[in-house]
Amino acid sequence: MADLERFHTIARDALDGLPAAFRGAAQQVALNIVDWPDDDMLQALGIDDPLHLTGLYEGIPMTEKSVFDQPGAPDVIWLFRRPILAEWRARGDVALEDLITHVLIHELAHHFGWSDADIAHIDRWWE
User: Is 113 left (phi over 0), alpha (psi -120 to 50) or beta?
Assistant: First the structure.
């Protein structure tokens, strides 16, 4: 089973492999990989089962940032190892590296200002 370090390596490789036009902005986002989302995250999103949250973007999307915004904490992408592993086992039809990369790119799209509806329109992963 892939540990947190392996997840981090896969995610960093995915970020490094982005086209140059996206790589710089993507590398400005902090990447946190933990086993589970915390209770505050789940509560804020109205999610009861922690297995239903594989990733989360926290920050101000680039399309909404202003020069007047005071820098605070960096934007963060969270990847949740145990829910990703559970989904990977349940699906049985994708490589773990592909699933980790998919979740990362989905959260990164939020950083670039895409909504879930925007992403779903282009990304047919879940069909």
Answer: left
